[in-house]
Amino acid sequence: MAGVLKTPAAPVAAAGPPRRRTGVARLVLVRAAASAAVLWGAVTATFLLLRVMPGGTADVLLARSAVTPEVRERIISEYRLDDPLATQYLAYLGRIARGEFGESYVLRRPVWDAIGSQLPHTLLLITATLLVTVAASVLLAVVSANRRGWVRSSFSAAESLVVALPPFWLGLLLLTVFSFTLHWFPAIGSSSPSGLVLPTVALAAGPVAVMTGVLRDGLLRALEEPFVVTARSRGIGELALRLRHVLRHALLPATTLLGWIAGSLIGGAVIIEIVFSRQGIGRLVLFAVENKDMPVVIAIVLLTAAVFVLVNIVVDVLVWTIDPRTREAGS
């Protein structure tokens, strides 16, 4: 009898990991299909917006040259600018699917070379912003998760005010106060560590306010759990209780939100780089839009959208793996 009972136990124990891998694969496939639609929509919208802007691509290509009508016609034919709009659109989608973005119309260099030379500056700003967002939001949430209502109300009011401020307006305000008036930080265009402070604050202010509110709500809910009473009965201090025991219970919704923030920061960095005249993708995309440099604009839009969807896919998989409730809901 013992052997009969042991025989069916082996497949049941081995069925767990394959089932989990199947669930992860299904989740990734669903998210990937939705992401492909997002990327297609971003590229299509950018293509159409550039086409309806004043001025033509041929004018951009020949802006600095005095050419004969014959040369102009040859260039238009070479770039297939005389094709119908639908033909140009389908041809460009085909090139994007093959990873061929061509050369910049204005910079006269491969698109990915132009982006690659500016991308490290943007990644530095995004990394600094994420570090500040995590550290500041955890600190503020732990401090503000207080039983006294006026403390929470004060922090909530400040967070609402910060979220309502547009990042570019906050950047201009920081420049006016700390650069032009107090002269504490470089005004514009500095690549020194001190020149990174104000752009990071301007870009991180909104995410910190949102993350603090989510973390604080999670902390307040966790403080009502029975394990808190047990921990306090063992003599654990209030700060240690919140950091070592309560905080981890509030991290799951904050992790999902942080993934969304991380994916969208590259778009926010574009605006901040323009305000502070920093090197990076922001100044490149501004230059490309002003000159209707379509290959550069579409490549940057596609890069931004791809980063956003990839980060969110990773976060969805992590949450699905960590939290059993999400697996039960999806089954």
From TrEMBL:
This is ABC transporter permease. It is found in: Cell membrane. The keyword Cell membrane applies. It is a multi-pass membrane protein. The chain crosses the membrane at residues 28-50, 123-145, 157-184, 196-215, 251-276, 296-322. Keywords: Cell membrane, Membrane, Transmembrane, Transmembrane helix, Transport. InterPro entries: BPD_transp_1_N, MetI-like, MetI-like_sf.
